[in-house]
Amino acid sequence: MNLEPLFCPYCGAEGSLEEMETSAMEIDGDLWLIYHWYCEQCQEQFDKVELSPLSIDDSDDDDLFDDDDDMER
Prior knowledge:
Layout: E1 17-19, E2 23-27, E3 30-39, E4 45-53, H1 61-64
């Protein structure tokens, strides 16, 4: 997925966009990656958001729960 914008949505300028620091947050089981951009021509800031579902790796399930077989009786 190409996240770099082709032009500024405010003034239409091409090639004068600067990428700023990316933010990430988890909301309702989804990962939101928020890319911040700054237009050097009109000095406006805008964002592009990439949304992807979070998945739990099945190999990590053993770390989350105690295994009854390992307990001494």
